[in-house]
Design brief:
five-stranded antiparallel beta sheet; alpha+beta
């Protein structure tokens, strides 16, 4: 086993873990210019007494024919308080079209999950440590469409975009640490995708997309890319999005206040209406036939004289 400095790439918090019976997958994340996800079998994969953990390449069918990734990995399992309770061994190998995912079928005995300290509040946290050491693209289609540009393999359709970046920021890739052309190319692909993302309208970003963009930016800067200009762009997008979100929130609050005021007005009007109804309520007077006759027929002078006598 060659010694490799692994980097924490992803943290996955799984709640209500004891209720999980079927395989579950994490959200996709980026590392080494590649997209990954974690697959977990809570009740084991062929070994019913063990928790199974795998690292998998995301969307393998979308990659070029003959693709390969070589990486080293291990998983660390924490309780909800952040205390490390288990660490897998470190493994190193290839991912490819035939084997897009591998890991640890017997990562952790399920009996340990009965420990309340481990499964604190029924929550399991998994940290993923990965180091991608080589990315290989093969196949006639790839070779035909790829061009060598300043130490990077670049698709012919991307030459214009890449050359514009180099023209505007000549030293942005001068100090990158990876020396493998394939790994450098994979990082360049991430960079192009990030630039495309940063140029989207701020209001189209979700919070998750923005966090993922910053995560990719940090990874690129950590391997040596000089991307202060791109960070400034992302900061600008983030600020504009916040202003838009705050403005929308303020408008919603304004409308909610208006609705509450209208409800209070309606409540007051209903109260006043009920008071008026109570004040004007008079029991109907019962008339006899005699009374009705006296009201409907005028009294003659003779009748008035007799009544006065």
């Amino acid at each position: 086993m060659m010694e490799i400095d692994l980097q924490k790439t992803f943290t996955w918090k799984i709640e209500n873990f004891s209720e999980r019976k079927f395989p579950i997958t994490s959200t996709a994340f980026s590392s080494g210019g590649c997209e990954w996800y974690v697959l977990i079998h809570p009740k084991g994969d062929g070994f019913d007494d063990y928790l199974s953990l795998y690292l998998c390449v995301a969307n393998p069918k979308s990659l070029q024919p003959g693709w390969k990734r070589r990486a080293s990995l291990n998983f660390i399992i924490l309780n909800q308080s952040g205390k490390e309770v288990h660490r897998t061994s470190e493994r190193y190998g290839w991912f490819g079209a035939e084997i897009p995912g591998w890991g640890f079928r017997t990562a952790l005995p399920l009996t340990k999950l009965q420990d309340k300290e481990l499964l604190e509040n029924n929550t399991l946290i998994i940290e993923v440590y990965i180091k991608v050491t080589e990315v290989v693209h093969e196949g006639d289609e790839t070779k035909k469409d790829m061009l060598d540009f300043r130490g990077f393999n670049v698709l012919s359709s991307q030459i214009t975009s890449v050359s514009q970046i180099f023209a505007k920021y000549p030293n942005f890739a001068a100090d990158i640490k990876p020396k493998s052309k394939a790994v450098k190319t994979a990082y360049l692909k991430v960079l192009l995708g990030l630039i495309k993302t940063a140029n989207k309208p701020p209001e189209s970003f979700s919070e998750t997309e923005l966090i993922k963009a910053y995560s990719s930016l940090i990874e690129l800067m950590e391997v040596g890319f000089k991307l202060d200009w791109l960070k400034s762009k992302l900061d600008e997008v983030s600020l504009e999005r916040k202003i838009k979100v705050d403005s929308d929130a303020a408008r919603v609050q304004e409308l909610e206040d208006k609705v509450k005021n209208l409800e209070l007005m309606l409540s007051d009007l209903k109260f006043e209406l009920d008071k008026e109804k109570a004040r004007s309520h008079i029991e109907p007077k019962m008339f006899s036939l005699k009374d009705y006759a006296s009201l409907s027929t005028p009294m003659s002078p003779w009748t008035r004289r007799r009544k006065s006598d």
